[in-house]
Write a structure and sequence with these properties.
Keywords: Coiled coil. By secondary structure, the chain is mainly α. It contains 3 helices and no strands.
Length: about 100
């Protein structure tokens, strides 16, 4: 393990989860999981336990994949909402013009 990697892991594990009590429980739970995985990875590296390290790496990769799936889903939902809003704005702009014309006549 690189010295800088070891220093990073120790500092990150010592810091604990980055969210406060004000953060929502889902984000706090995710931060706690990340902190536990980093701690397990650090311990496996310090003990030179390649099997444990590989298991933790697999868990980290799974966490990243799951998070990426959530991000992709949220992006898709956002795109759909943006399209719906644009369609509503286009449809309502014509209606607003009709109201302006009626107000003049």
């Amino acid at each position: 393990m690189l010295k800088s990697e070891n220093v990073f892991l120790k500092q990150t594990v010592a810091a604990g989860p980055s969210t406060t009590a004000r953060a929502n429980s889902a984000r706090h739970g995710a931060d706690s999981m990340e902190a536990r995985l980093l701690h397990a990875y650090l311990m496996a590296c310090e003990l030179k336990d390649n099997t444990a390290r590989a298991m933790v790496e697999t868990q980290m990769q799974t966490l990243v994949r799951n998070t990426q799936c959530k991000v992709d889903t949220l992006r898709e939902l956002l795109e759909n909402v943006q399209k719906d809003v644009e369609e509503l704005l286009e449809a309502s702009s014509g209606w607003g013009l009709m109201q302006d014309v009626r107000g003049v006549t």
